[in-house]
Structures are given as C-alpha cells and as structure tokens.
Automatic annotation (TrEMBL):
GO MF annotation list: cadmium ion sensor activity; DNA binding; DNA-binding transcription factor activity; lead ion binding
Annotated HTH arsR-type domain residues: 1-94
Pfam short name (any one): HTH_20
UniProt-listed InterPro entries: HTH_ArsR_DNA-bd_dom, HTH_Metal-responsive_Reg, WH-like_DNA-bd_sf, WH_DNA-bd_sf
One GO term of the biological process aspect: response to cadmium ion
Protein name: ArsR family transcriptional regulator
Organism of provenance: Variovorax terrae
PANTHER family the record matches: TRANSCRIPTIONAL REGULATOR-RELATED (PTHR39168), TRANSCRIPTIONAL REGULATORY PROTEIN (PTHR39168:SF1)
Length: 233
C-alpha cells in the first residue's frame, strides 16, 4: 500500500521563517554553503545547521561535498516550483512607492531557479507566443506549452539545443506565473535552456549574491533583433 503524503510535516518544515528564507535564497539557482545560507537568513551557523538537517531529512534539500565545503541545493525541480508558488500566493509586504519599484532589479530581470523571470522573462514568453514559436498545448490539462515547427527552427538557428532540453527529465515547456509581474514567464527545461544560452552568449550577467540579472549591451542588441523591448535599466 502506498503511504499518504505527510502534508503536515511538509507544512511544518517550510512554515519556519528561517527555513523558508533559506529556501528562498536557493531560488537564485546556485548551490550555497551553510555559511552563506546562515548569513542570508540572519542566523548563527550552528542554528543554520539544525535547520538544514531538517530540510535534508524532509527531502527538500540535497547536499554535495567538494573539498572542505558542503553545498546545498534543492532536492528536485518540484521543490523549486513549490517555493515559487508560495512566493506567488504569499501576502505582500509593504511596498515602496511606484516610482521606486520601477527601478527594482529583481522586478526587471531575475532567475526563477534556472529560468528567466521578471519583466524580461514575461516579455520573452509573450514574444515567443506572438511569433508562434510556442503555443498552448490543447491536449494538456496543465499550463503546458508546445514548441511549433517554426519555433524549433528559430531556436536552432539561435544555437539552442532543443533536443537536449527535451531529453531532460522534467516538463519541457510550461507557463509559470511570475510573482512580481502577475503574468506568465517560460518555465521547464526549455526555459532553462534559453536562460543558459543567454548567459553563455553574455546577453545577461548575474548580479553578485542575487537572483537579479543585468542585460548587457550585447544582450540589448540581441533581444532587440528578436523584437523584444526591454524594461528600462
């Protein structure tokens, strides 16, 4: 007999303010050390160790050793999706005036785990749909997308390995509701492949110790050629 999912244990694991802060830090997409997670969560390393052990025991995190350091990351893509969903439904903290919010790097462009979010991410998905490179999958019950033949050719011309993205053991392409924009950006392995390509081509640069990314002059030109109007930086 299959055991029922222990939702109460999961709720207790993510319900602690320090543990959920650690999980939010990992949405940057990089593996982090216990010290980095402790600093980011505002707690002592010894306290962080106990919280990390709980997250490991409950299957939310995985750890890998390299030299003297241990690096923590999400145990699966599903954990990243869970954290992003909580970001979308969580009550809003008091926000700065609208004039200040328009200059927020996190709102302009950031990583949502391993794919692009913010105004840049939502703009990219809108462009892919407008150009009919992507379309909603009529056979899917979830928010899945399918790549059209036109899109396959176009992405291949850009240098994106579509078949490698399809071979990954996860959703290929799906809508992911952006918590700051309240519009969809592109998730799944195709979204990750686009983000990897943008980084490899130096269209974007990750800001230090942040999920926010900056669009380089080279990236501005490349996105403009695609027909994407970028948010002001």
């Amino acid at each position: 007999m299959n055991a029922a999912p222990d939702l109460s244990r999961l709720a207790a694991a993510v319900g602690d303010a320090r543990r959920i802060q650690m999980l939010a830090l990992l949405m940057e997409g990089r593996a982090l050390t216990a010290k980095e997670l402790a600093l980011g969560a505002g707690i002592e390393p010894a306290t962080a160790t106990a919280h990390l052990r709980r997250l490991l025991d409950d299957g939310l995190l995985a750890v890998a050793s390299q030299g003297r350091h241990k690096y923590f990351r999400f145990a699966s893509d599903q954990v990243a999706q869970l954290v992003e969903t909580m970001m979308r439904v969580a009550p809003r903290v008091r926000e700065a005036p609208a004039a200040a919010r328009t200059d927020d790097p996190m709102r302009r462009a950031r990583y949502c785990y391993d794919h692009l979010a913010g105004s840049l991410g939502t703009g990219l998905l809108a462009l892919l749909l407008k150009r009919q490179w992507l379309q909603d999958d009529p056979a899917a019950t979830l928010r899945q997308l399918e790549l059209t033949p036109r899109g396959t050719r176009a992405l291949a011309a850009l240098g994106i390995d579509v078949e490698a993205a399809r071979a990954r053991r996860r959703q290929f392409a799906c809508r992911c509701l952006d918590w700051s924009e309240r519009r969809d950006h592109l998730g799944g392995s195709l979204g990750a492949a686009l983000a990897e390509h943008a980084a490899a081509e130096r269209w974007i640069e990750r800001r230090k110790h942040s999920r926010a990314v900056s669009v380089t002059p080279q990236g501005e030109q490349a996105f403009a050629q695609l027909g994407l109007r970028l948010p002001d930086s």
